[in-house]
TrEMBL record:
UniProt protein name: RPS6 protein
A GO CC term attached to the entry: ribosome
Lineage, top ranks: Eukaryota, Sar, Alveolata, Dinophyceae, Suessiales
Disordered: region residues: 477-506
Compositional bias (Acidic residues): 488-506
GO molecular function, one term: structural constituent of ribosome
UniProt keyword tRNA processing, yes or no: no
Domain Large ribosomal subunit protein uL11 N-terminal residue range list: 321-374
SMART domains named in the record: Ribosomal_S6e (SM01405), RL11 (SM00649)
Entry's family note: Belongs to the universal ribosomal protein uL11 family.
Keywords noted in UniProt: Ribonucleoprotein, Ribosomal protein
C-alpha cells in the first residue's frame, strides 16, 4: 500500500510505499478523519501523528466520508455531494464509491501530518515550499496581511517571477472597489430610479385616463339610453294615439287654454246632460290629445315646484358634544343617522365651527331639511359645565346640601349669567344670575357674596311684571328707566302708571 503524506505547514508531500502488512495493521478499520500514530510505520515516523484524509482502492474508486463500509457501494448522487460533479442542471447519477473505513484493498491512503516527531523526514519536514499563487480576492488579501478598508490592497498582491526572473506576474484582483465602480453603481441606480418615477407617472396618467374613459362611456351610454327611451316613448305615444284617438272624449270648458282654436263641440248632447252649462262640451280627437298633453305638463310643473321647495322637517338637539372633537360615535352618529344625513359632513362642519372651542362642551341644534341637508345652530355651553370649569372639577357633588366641591365669586357668577343670557328664558341679568345660582347650588358650588348681592337687588312685583313684561327698559324706577311710581303697592302701582306708558301690545 502506498501512503501519500502531506505537510500543510511546509507545503510539501511525500509518497511512501509499504509492503509489510504488519506495519499497516494499526491503520485498518480506522475511519476517515481519525488520528493515528506513525510509530508502527517505522523508526523514522516515531512521535508523528497523522490524520486519515482519504484514499483510493485498486480500481481507482475514491473513499467517501460518511459511508460506513470497508468495501465498494453504489449510491445515487446529486448536486452538492462529494465525489460527484454535476454535468447537467438537476441531473442525478448512480455511481460506485469506496466506504470511509480503511482496509487492505486500498491502493493509496492519504495521510495529513498533525504532529511532528523528534526526527525530520527528508522531503517532508526538512524544507519549505511556498505557495505558487497568492490570494486573488481583495477581502482575502486584506485578511492575509491584516489590512483595513482604507488601505490599498494593490500594493500587497503576491507577484511571481517568470522567464528566469526577468519578469513578474500578478493576478487580477477581484471584487476591488474603485471610484469607477462606485460611479457606475450610482449611474445604474439613477437609471433605475428614473424608470420607477416614469413608471409611476405613467401609471397615474393611465389611471386618470381610465377614469375619464369610464366617465365618457357612462355619459355616452346614458345619452344612448335616454335617446332610445325618448324614441320608444314617442313610438308608444304614437301607437297609443293611433289606437285610441277615436275613443278619447272629455267634457271640458271652452275657456281651456289648450283648446284655443279648437272649441268644444257637443257631438253627443245626451252624454253631456247634467254638465251642459254655457261654454262646456265634449272634446274628442286632436283636441282631446292636446288637452291630455296640457294636463300632463301641469302635473310635472307642480311636482317640480314641490320638489324645489326645501322645508325644515325636524330639529335635533345635541348637548353633550365636545367642541372641535366631534366623532361619528354616539351620541352624534345615531342622532344624525336616524334622519339620513351625511354624518361625516356634519362632523367636519361642526369641528370647523368649534375649532376655537376645543375641549369645551358646545351644544348645538341641527335643523334637518327636506332634501337631507342640514343647518347647525351653535348654543352656549351648559351652565353646569361652565360652573365645573370655574372650580376645576369634572362633575358636580353627589350631596349638594352637605358636600361643597368649590366656590366662585359673585363676579364670576355674573360673567356666566351674561354668557348664558341669550339662551335663558329672561332678558334681565339679575334674573339670569338667580337661575345660574340655582344650578350652582344643585352642583355643590358656593357663591361668595351672593347673600349681600341679593339684599341689594330690587325685587320686581308680579303685577309690574305682568303689566310691562320681562323687559327692563319699559319698567318704571327703581326696576327700569321709566318714571317712578307714587306707591310701591301692587294696586297703587297699577293705578299710578300713565296710559301712554302702557305698550300697545298690552
Amino acid at each position: 500500500m502506498k501512503l501519500n503524506i502531506s505537510n500543510p505547514t511546509t507545503g510539501m508531500q511525500k509518497l511512501v510505499e509499504i509492503d509489510d502488512d504488519k506495519k499497516l495493521y494499526p491503520l485498518f478499520d480506522k475511519r476517515m478523519a481519525s488520528e493515528v500514530s506513525g510509530d508502527s510505520l517505522g523508526d523514522e515516523f516515531k512521535g508523528y501523528v497523522f490524520r486519515i484524509g482519504g484514499g483510493n482502492d485498486k480500481q481507482g474508486f475514491p473513499m467517501k466520508q460518511g459511508v460506513m463500509s470497508n468495501n465498494r457501494v453504489r449510491l445515487l448522487f446529486k448536486k452538492g455531494m462529494s465525489c460527484y460533479r454535476e454535468r447537467r442542471s438537476g441531473c442525478r447519477k448512480r455511481k460506485s464509491v469506496r466506504g470511509c473505513i480503511v482496509g487492505p484493498d486500498l491502493a493509496v491512503l492519504h495521510l495529513v501530518l498533525v504532529k511532528k516527531g523528534a526526527e525530520d523526514i527528508p522531503g517532508l519536514t526538512d524544507d519549505q515550499k511556498p505557495r505558487r499563487l497568492g490570494p486573488k480576492r481583495a477581502s482575502n488579501i486584506r485578511k492575509l496581511f491584516g489590512l483595513e478598508k482604507k488601505d490599498d490592497v494593490r500594493q500587497f498582491v503576491v507577484r511571481r517571477e517568470i522567464k528566469e526572473g526577468k519578469k513578474t506576474k500578478a493576478p487580477k484582483i477581484q471584487r476591488l472597489i474603485t471610484p469607477q465602480l462606485l460611479q457606475r453603481k450610482r449611474y445604474f441606480k439613477a437609471i433605475t430610479r428614473k424608470r420607477m418615477e416614469a413608471g409611476k407617472e405613467a401609471k397615474a396618467a393611465y389611471a386618470q385616463r381610465l377614469i375619464e374613459y369610464h366617465h365618457e362611456q357612462r355619459e355616452a351610454h346614458a345619452a344612448e339610453v335616454a335617446k332610445k327611451k325618448k324614441k320608444s316613448e314617442g313610438k308608444t305615444l304614437a301607437r297609443s294615439v293611433q289606437t285610441f284617438i277615436l275613443r278619447l272624449t272629455f267634457l271640458a270648458p271652452a275657456s281651456e287654454p289648450a283648446l284655443r282654436g279648437r272649441a268644444p263641440t257637443l257631438r253627443n248632447p245626451s252624454r253631456a246632460q247634467g254638465h251642459a252649462g254655457e261654454g262646456f262640451g265634449l272634446v274628442f280627437g286632436g283636441a282631446a290629445l292636446a288637452l291630455c298633453v296640457a294636463v300632463r305638463r301641469r302635473q310635472e310643473d307642480r311636482s317640480l315646484t314641490s320638489v324645489c321647495a326645501v322645508t325644515e322637517v325636524a330639529q335635533v338637539k345635541l348637548s353633550k358634544i365636545m367642541g372641535g372633537k366631534a366623532t361619528p360615535a354616539p351620541p352624534v352618529g345615531p342622532a344624525i343617522g336616524a334622519f339620513g344625513l351625511n354624518i361625516a359632513m356634519f362632523v367636519k362642519e361642526y369641528n370647523a365651527l368649534t375649532a376655537d372651542k376645543v375641549g369645551q362642551t358646545c351644544p348645538c341644534i341641527v335643523h334637518v331639511m327636506s332634501d337631507k341637508s342640514f343647518k347647525i345652530e351653535l348654543k352656549t355651553p351648559l351652565t353646569a359645565a361652565l360652573l365645573h370649569k370655574a372650580v376645576n372639577k369634572q362633575k358636580g357633588s353627589g350631596k349638594a346640601g352637605t358636600d361643597i366641591i368649590g366656590s366662585i365669586s359673585i363676579e364670576k357668577l355674573e360673567e356666566i349669567a351674561q354668557l348664558k343670557l341669550p339662551d335663558l328664558n329672561c332678558e334681565d341679568i339679575t334674573r339670569a344670575m338667580k337661575i345660574v345660582h340655582g344650578t350652582a347650588v344643585a352642583s355643590g358650588i358656593k357663591v361668595d357674596g351672593y347673600e349681600e348681592w341679593l339684599e341689594k337687588a330690587v325685587p320686581k312685583p308680579k303685577t309690574i311684571m305682568d303689566r310691562y313684561g320681562p323687559g327692563v327698559a319699559r319698567l318704571p324706577a327703581p326696576w327700569g328707566e321709566g318714571p317712578p311710581l307714587a306707591d310701591t303697592g301692587d294696586d297703587a302701582a297699577a293705578e299710578a302708571v300713565p296710559e301712554e306708558a302702557v305698550p300697545e301690545e298690552a
